[in-house]
Design brief:
The complex is a heterodimer of chains A (about 290) and B (about 300). Chain A has about 290 residues and is mainly α. In chain A, about 75% of the residues lie in helices and about 0% in strands. Chain A is built from twelve helices and no strands. In chain A, α3 (about 55-75) packs antiparallel against α6, α6 packs antiparallel against α7 (about 140-165) and α7 runs antiparallel to α10 (about 225-235). With about 300 residues, chain B is of the alpha/beta class. Chain B has two domains: about 5-220, 3-Layer(aba) Sandwich (Rossmann fold); about 225-295, 2-Layer Sandwich (Alpha-Beta Plaits), CATH 3.30.70.1340. Chain B has ten helices and 14 strands. The chains are: A mainly alpha (about 290), B alpha/beta (about 300). The interface between A and B is medium-sized, with 25 and 27 residues.
C-alpha cells in the first residue's frame, strides 16, 4: 500500500512548512485572543448578554474563521503537486511504485491531517479560556463549530489540490489560489447580485427591500464558505448572536425550501471536499508531467 | 538473454518541436549502456518516456519485458532511477527520504550502510535543504539503489560531483552490474561513457546516429590511429603508400606521420623504412581523440 507512505511523508513534510506556522500563529492568536477579549467586554454592551457563554465566543469567532481558514486550506494545497513538478522532486516520487492515484490522494490525506492541526490548537486554547472565564460552556455547539470549521478547511484544501494537479508551475498555482480566495470570499456576492439584477431587474438590499428570493439565498451560499455560514446558522442555535443571516427571515418564508436546509448545505460542503480532487485526478492521470 | 530496454520507432513532439524521431534502441540484460549525446539531443525526453512521466507521440517502449505505459507500476518496482539535477524534499532528512523509498518499494536495506556506500556517512540526519549539490546527487544515487533494482536508469549521474565522486559513481555502476543489474545511463561527456560502457549509443536531434562498443564506433566513423616516427633522414616515400593498411602519409623533415587502419601491424612499414636504410629514432602511436570522434558524430 504505497498510499499510506505518501500520507506519512506529506504530513511530515508539510507540517514543517514555515508559511503554515505563520498562518497558524496568526489564527491561534486571533481565536484565543478573540475569546479573551469577549471576557473583558462589559455586560449588556450589545455583544454580550447577562451571561457570557461559549456561544458568544463562537459568534465572535465565526467571522475570523471564515476568512482565515480558507487561506490555511489553500496555502497547504495550492502547490502540493505543481510544486513537485516545478522543483523536479516529482522525478523521484513518480519513479517509485506509486500510481498517480496514490500520489494525489496520498497528498490530500496527508495534508488533511495537517490542516486540522491549527484549528485544533486554536480551539483547544480558546476552550480553556472559555472553561475558566466564561459563565457557561455549551459543548454541543462548540463541537459542531469545530467540525464545521474543519470541513471548511478541507474544502479549500481539496479545491487547491485539485487545481494543483492541473497547473505546472508554482506561479500559476499561486494565481489560482489567490483567484479562488477572492472569488469565493469577496466576488461571489457581487456575482450573485449581478445574476439577481439580470433576472429580477433590481439589486437586492439596495431598494430598501431586506428580503430576497429563495434561489438567490441559495446561490449566495453555494460556495464552501457560503455553505459553512448557512450550516453555522442552522446547526447551532445561537439565537440572535450568530453572524450569519437567518434564512427564514431573509427569504421571508415560514418554511425553507429543501435546498436551503442543512442536509443540502452539508452535502454541498462534502461535494466541495470530494469533487475537486476527483476532477484533478482525471486530468492528472493522463497528462505529461513535464 | 532478455532485453532490459526495447525502444522501437519512438516519436515525441512538443507542439511543433520534434524531440524524438524514430528512435530505436535495445539494451541487453546485464549490460552497461551509455546514452551519449549533446545537450538538447533528446536524452532526458527518452528517459522521461521510459519512466512514463510523459507519453510517447508514437512508437513502443518496453522495459524488462513490460509495456512502459500499461505496466509502468510493475516496471517501477524493478527499477532504480536517478534524475538529472535531483530535487529532494528539503524539509526532511536524508535518511527519512531513503526510508520513504525503502517502504514504498518494500525493500530490505540497511540505510546506514547505504549512506556509507555513497559517501554520506554521518549526514543522514541532516535535512537535505542543508546538503550541497554533490551530497544531493549522492543521496539520489542511494535512492536509486534501494531494492536491488534489475535496471538502473541514471540521468547524467556524475553531474555536480568532484573527481572522487565521479569515480564512486563508476565503481557503484560496476558493482551493481556485477550483481546482475543492467545500467542505462545518459551523459553528454564522451569520456564518462567511454570509461565504463559496454556499449554506447549516440543520440542527436532525436535520433540514434551511432551505436556499439567504442571500437565499433571508431570504425563506423573511420577513426584511425596515427603513427608518428622520428627518423635520422628524410625517407623516400613514393612507394610507401602502396603498403597495405596505410591510408595517408605526411613527411615533415625527419618526422613521418602515417595514418593507418586501426590495429594493423606496423612491422611491414618498419621493414620498408629499413630497406631504405632509414634509421628509426623513435615512434609513438595515437588514436584520434575521443573528443574528435564525438565532435564528428554530432556535427551539424
Amino acid at each position: 500500500m504505497a498510499l499510506i507512505h505518501i500520507v506519512k511523508k506529506e504530513f511530515e513534510d508539510s507540517i514543517r512548512s514555515k508559511n503554515l506556522w505563520i498562518l497558524t500563529i496568526i489564527f491561534v492568536g486571533l481565536i484565543a485572543g478573540g475569546s479573551l477579549v469577549m471576557y473583558f467586554l462589559p455586560e449588556n454592551s450589545g455583544f454580550v448578554g447577562e451571561n457570557l457563554t461559549s456561544d458568544n465566543a463562537i459568534a465572535a469567532l465565526q467571522g475570523i474563521s471564515s476568512i482565515l481558514v480558507p487561506l490555511i486550506g489553500l496555502m497547504l494545497g495550492y502547490n502540493s503537486i505543481s510544486g513537485e513538478i516545478d522543483s523536479g522532486s516529482y522525478k523521484t516520487l513518480f519513479s517509485l511504485p506509486n500510481s498517480r492515484f496514490d500520489i494525489l490522494f496520498g497528498k490530500l490525506l496527508g495534508r488533511s491531517f495537517v490542516v486540522i492541526i491549527p484549528i485544533l490548537i486554536a480551539f483547544a486554547i480558546s476552550s480553556v479560556i472559555i472553561f475558566f472565564l466564561y459563565d457557561r460552556f455549551y459543548l454541543n455547539n462548540y463541537i459542531i463549530f469545530i467540525i464545521l470549521t474543519i470541513l471548511l478547511a478541507l474544502s479549500f484544501l481539496s479545491i487547491s489540490i485539485g487545481f494543483s494537479a492541473v497547473v505546472k508551475t508554482k506561479n500559476k498555482a499561486i494565481g489560482w489560489a489567490i483567484g479562488t480566495y477572492f472569488l469565493f470570499l469577496f466576488i461571489w456576492d457581487t456575482i450573485a447580485m449581478g445574476v439577481h439584477y439580470v433576472s429580477e431587474g433590481s439589486i437586492p438590499f439596495l431598494s430598501g427591500n431586506q428580503t430576497v428570493p429563495a434561489w438567490f439565498a441559495f446561490f449566495q451560499r453555494v460556495t464552501p464558505n457560503g455553505a459553512y455560514g448557512a450550516l453555522s446558522n442552522s446547526l447551532m442555535d445561537l439565537g440572535n448572536l450568530g453572524q450569519f443571516v437567518d434564512l427564514t427571515s431573509l427569504i421571508a418564508q415560514e418554511t425553507l425550501p429543501f435546498y436551503l436546509t442543512s442536509p443540502v448545505f452539508l452535502a454541498l460542503l462534502l461535494i466541495w471536499i470530494t469533487t475537486p480532487p476527483i476532477f484533478g485526478y482525471f486530468f492528472f492521470e493522463s497528462r505529461d508531467l513535464v | 538473454m532478455g532485453k532490459a530496454i526495447e525502444i522501437s520507432d519512438l516519436k515525441k513532439s512538443f507542439g511543433n518541436i520534434q524531440a524524438l524521431r524514430d528512435l530505436d534502441l535495445v539494451v541487453e540484460e546485464n549490460e552497461i549502456y551509455g546514452f551519449l549525446g549533446p545537450n538538447g539531443a533528446g536524452k532526458t525526453t527518452t528517459i522521461n518516456i521510459l519512466l512514463d512521466f510523459i507519453k510517447p507521440s508514437d512508437g513502443e517502449v518496453k522495459l524488462l519485458g513490460h509495456d512502459s505505459r500499461r505496466e509502468s507500476f510493475e516496471i517501477k518496482r524493478k527499477i532504480g532511477f536517478l534524475p538529472e539535477r535531483i530535487s529532494l524534499y528539503d524539509r526532511l532528512t536524508g535518511k527519512r527520504q531513503l526510508e520513504f523509498v525503502k517502504k514504498t518499494k518494500g525493500a530490505d536495506v540497511d540505510l546506514d550502510g547505504l549512506l556509507e556506500r555513497v559517501g554520506l556517512e554521518g549526514e543522514g540526519d541532516k535535512k537535505t535543504g542543508k546538503y550541497s549539490k554533490g551530497m544531493k546527487q549522492r543521496l539520489g544515487l542511494a535512492i536509486s539503489l534501494i531494492g536491488e533494482p534489475e535496471l538502473l536508469i541514471l540521468d547524467e549521474p556524475t553531474t555536480g560531483l568532484d573527481p572522487h565522486g565521479k569515480r564512486m559513481v563508476r565503481d557503484i555502476i560496476k558493482e551493481e552490474n556485477k550483481r546482475g543489474a543492467t545500467i542505462f545511463f545518459s551523459t553528454h561527456i564522451l569520456e564518462q561513457a567511454e570509461k565504463i560502457s559496454d556499449r554506447v549509443g549516440i543520440i542527436r536531434g532525436g535520433e540514434l546516429i551511432a551505436e556499439g562498443t567504442m571500437e565499433e564506433l571508431r570504425e563506423q566513423v573511420g577513426a584511425e590511429s596515427y603513427l608518428r616516427i622520428e627518423t635520422d633522414k628524410r625517407p623516400n616515400i613514393d612507394s610507401i603508400e602502396k603498403l597495405e593498411g596505410i591510408k595517408e602519409i605526411e613527411v615533415m623533415g625527419n618526422e613521418i606521420k602515417v595514418k593507418v587502419e586501426e590495429n594493423m601491424s606496423f612491422s611491414d612499414f618498419f621493414g620498408y623504412l629499413e630497406s631504405q636504410d632509414v634509421k628509426i629514432l623513435g615512434f609513438e602511436t595515437e588514436n584520434s581523440s575521443l573528443e574528435d570522434l564525438f565532435a564528428i558524430l554530432t556535427r551539424e
